[in-house]
Each structure stands twice: as structure tokens, then as C-alpha cells.
Amino acid sequence: MVVGMRISGDELSPFGLTQPDIIEICAALDKYDLLDYYNVIAGASSTLGSAVHNIPPMAIEHGYTVPYAAAIKARVRKPVFVAGRINQPQIAEQVLTAGHADMIGMTRALISDPEMPNKARTGRTDDIRACIGCNQACAGHMHAGYSISCIQHPETGRELTHANKPKVSQRRRILIAGGGPAGLKAAAVAAERGHDVTLYERGQQLGGQVLLAQLLPGRAEFGGLITNLAHEARQSGAKVVTNTAVTSDLIRTENPDAVILATGARPHVPEIPGIEDAHVANVWQILRGEVNAGRSVVVADWRSDWIGLGIAEKLAREGRHVRLCVNANMAGQNLQSYVRDHWLGIVHSLGVEIIPMARLAGVDADTVYFEHLANNTPFECRDVETLVLAMGHESETRIEESLTEYAGEIIPIGDCAAPRTAEEAVLDGLNAGLRV
Ligand SMILES: Cc1cc2nc3c(=O)[nH]c(=O)nc-3n(C[C@H](O)[C@H](O)[C@H](O)COP(=O)(O)O)c2cc1C
Ligand code: SF4
Description:
The chain is of the alpha/beta class. The protein folds into 3 domains: 4-106, no CATH class; 166-266 and 395-435, NAD(P)-binding Rossmann-like Domain (Rossmann fold), CATH 3.40.50.720; 275-391, FAD/NAD(P)-binding domain (3-Layer(bba) Sandwich), CATH 3.50.50. It contains 17 helices and 19 strands. It has helices spanning 19-31, 48-51, 66-73, 89-97, 108-112, 116-121, 139-144, 159-162, 181-192, 210-213, 224-235, 248-254, 283-287, 306-317, 337-349, 398-402, 422-435, and strands spanning 4-8, 37-41, 80-83, 103-105, 173-177, 196-200, 239-241, 258-261, 265-267, 280-282, 296-301, 321-326, 353-355, 358-363, 368-372, 378-381, 386-390, 393-395, 409-412. A 5-stranded parallel sheet has the order 7-6-5-8-19, with helices on one face. A 5-stranded parallel sheet has the order 10-17-11-12-13. Strands 1-2-3-4 form a 4-stranded parallel sheet, covered by helices on one side. α9 (181-192) packs parallel to α11 (224-235), α9 (181-192) runs parallel beside α17 and α14 (306-317) packs parallel to α15. The longest helix has 14 residues, at 422-435. The protein is flat and about 80 Å long. Bound molecules: flavin mononucleotide (FMN) and iron/sulfur cluster. Iron/sulfur cluster binds at residues 108, 111-112, 131-138, 150-152. Flavin mononucleotide binds next to α5 and α7.
């Protein structure tokens, strides 16, 4: 029987074992020949900060555990494995070639693309759907108590119901409006099943809201979602047309058998007393560089997710004083805990003040007014130059409303059906691609 041990190369906690401790422990175990291998990661479950390394999020660099494995390997005779943000075979190959480890563990890489080893073996590395380290549907689902999946590949965990994509007996012409995550997944699946699929994106670039999400600090890898889905859509044979808005005229001319609407959402701007007297911007405007924030900023965060924390980090890094007021018990409440806890540490270091349980009630030229969620007690943030709204989204339904004459099937998916996250958008796309 082969018996190995998973061990942390450094617990990365002020109360935990350090790298020198662990090297000595492994060297001692090795002396007694007790183990057949050492499987090296980082962190420990004992503190919130060190637990982040159990399943490190995208803000942590690829292969950062390799030096810990290499240091242990230098002191033991038995094979050393390493895991942690190694998401591509090219990185794995480099680690092995450099002699830093003898074997690579790749967990999320296989949740994201179960075919990854076969694709690597047969030289199809461009086809690999690389894990982007978002932790949403793998770690996020596990901690929420339901079966793991992947936001990029919702077939994972739904193998019995969604993995089989039966070929169609009758090829239909499917028109898809919108090249974000929902539209691209629907295009990939419908085309794979044999339909004649054309996806129209009104912008120059595919991606929808992912184009903005990837601009938040530490979130650049999120753009990989679109790289992967666009590749899958094209590979399946879907035609992808950019710079073309879908209109009722276009639908009349094309006359498809079914229209899948994946037109996304726009920022929700609630009715806020005093808004006309204040400098107010939404997160999209800030990320697109359309509006400059002042020196002192309040972010009103209704969703308590990536957007509020990300915009607070960005504005604080630009040297502004940032107060992040969240309509929740804590900032990032709706995020997977490792993603959230790591991010809370970063914004704390940058001096962002977090004010929880805050319901936005009003604004004027230099003050933002809130009510406490628990008892409605009013409170205010003074000396504010800019109020930044992260207040969720509204479905973009204008095309749907204009299709009064179209007699074929219309399927709204993603945020244009109901604003949620990229995870639900991709799952909606899969369901629509299987349904048409
Ligand atoms: C859903 C999920 C469950 C996991 N459960 C365990 C576990 O029970 N024990 C463990 O040592 N690591 C567990 N891990 C951590 C992985 O083994 C691995 O160390 C970590 O995900 C980093 O590697 P990766 O970047 O290749 O995913 C889990 C990871 C995921 C995504
Ligand atoms: S949900 Fe995100 S982190 Fe998890 S396997 Fe998929 S891409 Fe990777």
C-alpha cells in the first residue's frame, strides 16, 4: 500500500508552523522511511488568513507553492508532489523540467476541463478550458453544501442530466443576440448539437460584463471565461458576428427558427433623494474611464460581491479615501469565503473603511445618508466628493419588447432574463443550447 502525506510547505499564519519547521518535519519523517511521498500545498485551516490557501483564488499567483515543494524535495528522498494554482500543462511541465517537484496535483483544472490531460497528451493545448481561479462553483458550491461544478463548464457535477448533447434530427436556424457568457455558451452547445447558429454582438469585442469584471484589481484572469467560451463557440461551428446590433429588421431579414436573447443588463440606478445635487457615478462609468471620482469616495454596495470590493480597491489604490458601505453584514458577504477573506485583507491594508448594514437613503453635495439595516437608524458619511453606486443591474429587454411580429421561439437567458452572476448566465446558455 502506498501511503503519502499532504503537508503545508508553510502554514502562512503567525500562529502556525513555518517553512523551516516543516522542512525539518519532512526530513525527520523521511529518515524513518515512513512515507512514500509528500504532497505539498500552503496555508492551514486554523485561521481565516491561512485558510485562503486551501483553495487559492485568482488573486494569488500561479504555482506559488512550488518553492515550498522544491525546498522539501531538497531534503527528502521520496517523491514530492505539489498543488496550487497550476492550471495549465505548460506550467506543470516547467515545474517538472526544473526538478522542483516529481508530480503535479491539478484539482480545479480538472473540474473546469475534465478532458485536460487528454488534450495535453494529444497536443490540443489551445482547446484546454483553463481554470480561472474564481472559486465560484467548485469551492463555492462545496461550502454552500451542494455538488461542485464549474462556472465555465456547468456540465461538471451535472453529468447525468447535461453532459450528453444529443444531435438534432432537424437542423434549425438559431439567432443569438449578445456575445457575453450566456450567449456564447448557448452558441457553443446549439452548434455542437448540429444547429445552424449565428451569434451577433453589438460591440467590437465579445464578453459583455466580463469585459468590465476583468478590469477590477486582481481579477484579470476572469477574462479567460470569454477566451474559453468564444473558442468553444467557434470550434462548434457557430458563426460569430461582432459590431452588429440585433434589431427587429435583422430578425425579419434572417427569419430564424428561434431567437436566443442574451443581451445582458445595465446598472440599476435607484431613485435617491438629492441625486441631482451630488456627484454620483456607477461602477461601469468608473471602470470605463467615463467619470473621474473625487478624492473622497463613498461606494454604496447593494450586492456585497466582487464589484463593491473591487471598485473600493481600485479607487483606494489611486490614492483616494474610500468608504465602502454595504447592504449586508460584511463586505463580500456573497463571495466564496477564500475570495472574500483574501480581498478583505487587501482593502484593509489600503485603508478602505468598511461600514456594514448600510441602506442607501439619500445624498447631497457633500454627504451621503444611510439607514442601519437592523433598526433603520439614520447615519451619514460627510465630506464626500463622489458617491459610487454598486446597486445591481436591470435586465436589458429592449430587443425582446420590439419583437412583437416575430412568430418563432424566443428564449431570454442570462442577465436579460434576470440579473445574476456569470455562473447562472453560462448555465442558462447550456440549458438553452440543449432546449432548442
Ligand atoms: C471542491 C474542492 C474540494 C477540496 N477538498 C480538499 C480536501 O478535502 N482535502 C485537501 O487536502 N484539499 C482539498 N482541496 C484542495 C485541492 O486538493 C488543491 O490543493 C487546491 O484546490 C489547489 O489546487 P488547484 O489550484 O489545482 O485547484 C479541495 C479543492 C476543491 C476545489
Ligand atoms: S468554478 Fe472557477 S475556480 Fe472553480 S474550477 Fe471553475 S474556473 Fe476554476
